[in-house]
Amino acid sequence: MPTTSHRSLVGRRDEIDRLLALVRAASRGEGGVLVLRGEPGIGKSALLDHVERATAAEFQVIRASGSEFEGELPFAALHQLCVPALAHLDELSAPYRESLLVAFGLADGTPDPFRVGLAALELLATAAGTRPMLCVVDDAHWLDTASARALTFLARRIAAEPIAMVFAARDQEPVRGLDELPGLTVGGLSDTDARALLAEEKTVTLDERVRDRLLAEARGNPLALIELPKAGGFAPPAPSPIASRIERSFRDRMAELPVDARRLLILASADPTGDPVLLWAAAGRLDIDVPAASAAAEASGLIRFGTRARFCHPLARSAAYRAAEPKQRHTAHRALAEVTDAETAGDRRAWHRAQATTGPDEQVAAELELSASRAQARGGVAAAAAFLERAAALSLDPAKQTERTLAAARTTLEAGATDAAADLLASVDTATLDVPQHASVDLLRGRIAFVQGAEGAVRGPDLILRAAERLAAADPERSREFFVAALEMGLVVGRAAGVLDRVLDAARSAPPPSGPPDLLDALVRLTTEGHHAGVPALRRVLTGDDAGWTKTPALATVLAGELWDIDLHATIVDWLVRTGRDTGSPMTIRLGLSQVALHAVLTGNFGRAMAAIGEEEAIADAVGDPPQLYPRVHLAAMRGRRREVLDLFAEATTRGSGQLTANAHWATAVLYNGLAEYPAALDAATRAVASGDLFLTGIALPELVEAAVRCGKDSVARSALDSLTARTEPAGTTFALGITASVRAMVSDAESDHLEALRYLADGPLSVHLARARLRYGEWLRREGRRREAREQLRTAHEQLAKIGLEAFTRRAADELRATGEVARSRSGPSYDHLTMQETHIARQVAAGATSKEVATRLFLSPRTVDAHLRNIFRKLGITSRRQLKDMPDLRDAELSS
């Protein structure tokens, strides 16, 4: 592949080699990404230009850049990047084509936000089908939020495509998602290379002392070495950042230009699209002599005009914009607004109008509010927040200003900018608020506090409680909704923090429901009167004709566990998955898939659990969030994988959620009981139970009893059994009765209890607990000296445990069987033992008859990537075809709808 030289690339051989290796791999169909990081002027843009020139003969090169002055127009940078590939738009499937058209504001509608990235992937992969593609993204630290998410998504999924992506970003301005991609820090030049670069600059003759001063001040920054000599070479009297000094150099060059050339540069700096048609039209509005002005501007080296107007460096554009007087900037934005099409680019027009406005303007504010609504519908939450904040600032009516500020705070929080949301709320004059508005402020402050760390997470529910209490008289129904919201938040914090109990205590004074007792009443009754009174009330609410739990599905899944009702849990999970798929809500489908995994763990279908976890992780990655941890904790615990459980425990502790930590303690107890390390199991189970969390306490009590009995802590075991019975007896389900009998057998040492447990558990889907109950019975028989009967039970338990994949308990069963004089037959593990979570999902879907394209849609991958995964799956499983996947019994039970 050819290379070219450039004066600002002195000393950059290693960086160039890394970039060329990336594009060579892409030319072989092995796509990849690299993020160049460094201070302004360090040479990132020069490296991008170099790799662009070096690959121009072989590659299609498409380019985009973030814009400091563009605001938060959703998908603006993604649109820039995709414009050259839009000729292939008609080759996409209809849903993807529609997603891109809506995201780019070219059609009405609400796209599925986390499918926009997949649609862009299909578009670029289609365009790269005949010729490899290089995607260059400069100023990535200024990308709009929606584009940053979509481009990060793209970068993670091009491994099987002939596409290379190179980003350049400032190292002090992290961009969510980009920081997780492969990166390369571009540092300052060595003294030798800096002198060599300075020697190449023939524009000025420098005194030796001036040269030494320049070298010291530039600290190896190439642009500083090139630009500062043009400004005389001396640093200003007071220290200032290199970027500011370079901008000053650009401003000095701009000051020497004719007036029209300066006005044209200001106009170009205010338009981030670089569209020359738009630029010339706006220049015409300002009576600029375009031929003369553009020639003078280009001659200065600050800008060049072609298919796009491009400044010589991002700092040059910044310098042009900052050098303008406020009136000049307003004039430029006004001209751009006048020539921007209101139909095809309404949001950009509204933004230009807002930047051109010097005082309150209700018409512009209303237009921005409309743009915010459109942006939010297109997934541009950060854009909506920016529009609403500006709309509030331009509002004439104090009431509308307050409403717009509150809306801006809400959307800013949704965009993840908690500090900015808090600042917006602080600007609201609470003395002027009515009761509902005051409650909204409390609710927002509670949500902000909740995500600001452990201390705030405890304070958040209390703030929402305050909102509920404010509304008690004015809006009783909404007040009760806020009480339930505080409950859900308290549930996540964990009962150990005392938040849940404070919420429930306050809920006793909540206004009564307008109809029959609801979820809030049932929870208060459970807390104040115990399980015998509370469980029937909960059951009526959760299983009645009015499925009110659909408003609080996360809480409903926990309560189904508290009721020991596996069928109700399955109903809620099915609703979550279907609703998530129908609405495209990432939060709903992720909750549903996590609960699918949990249900599958409880019922012993580990392959399905892995598949659901794999899909949830794919969606989490698509929306830029960390994956849910608790289903992985439950699965790893049951499989008995020490290292994985301990690693997940450490991660759960780092994340800091009380309930997540309780999950981790439960998982550790299961692990150590499986490994027969009972003192460690006792310690972990004690911690899990101490939290007092709904569902988790109940499911951890059997682990506590088993560990306590094995450690000879009889009083601890009996106390834990009493606590368990108090929960399971009112529930009365087969699950509850079977677990209780199995646990009671360990304390009573009575064979009748073992047999009762097996009878109950054999009638349900809980194969994990049935196999463990059979193991305990076999162990009891061996201790009683009934070796032949023990062998029969232990042999069956060993087979069941091995088939499910409970590795630690399988080894424990083998040890017990060996103690009876029989060696357990070795069994190969399930097929999915060799696969990753994502590979398991792909294998199960293909085994159920899904095409690569269908699987790709579900996992947000390209079909080519799915095929690459399939090749790995075939290799790991020792097969060669999709048909053979269908013949594997532990992969055949996949459900394409779940």
Explain what this protein looks like in three dimensions.
- With 898 residues, the chain is mainly α.
- Helices cover 65% and strands 4% of the residues.
- It has 45 helices and 7 strands.
- It has a 5-stranded parallel β-sheet, with helices on both faces. Strands 6-7 form a two-stranded antiparallel sheet.
- α5 packs across α6, α31 runs antiparallel to α32 (642-655) and α35 (696-710) runs parallel beside α37 (734-748).
- The longest helix has 21 residues, at 454-474.
- Residues 1-7, 231-240 and 894-898 have low confidence and may be disordered.
- One of its GO terms (molecular function) is DNA binding.
- Keywords: ATP-binding, DNA-binding, Nucleotide-binding.
In short:
With 898 residues, the protein is mainly α. The chain has 45 helices and seven strands.
Largest pleated sheet: 5 strands, parallel
Relative helix content: 55-70%
Strand content: under 5%
Structural class, by secondary structure, is mainly alpha
Strand runs, count: 7
Q: Which stretches of 5+ consecutive residues score pLDDT under 50? A: 1-7, 231-240, 894-898
The general outline is globular
Order of strands, main sheet, comes to 2-3-4-1-5
Distance between the termini: 47 Å
State mean pLDDT (0 to 100 scale): 85
Rg calc: 32 Å
Number of helices: 45
Protein name: DNA-binding CsgD family transcriptional regulator
GO molecular function: DNA binding
InterPro entries: AAA_16 (IPR041664), P-loop_NTPase (IPR027417), Sig_transdc_resp-reg_C-effctor (IPR016032), TPR-like_helical_dom_sf (IPR011990), Tscrpt_reg_LuxR_C (IPR000792), WH-like_DNA-bd_sf (IPR036388)
Pfam family, one: GerE
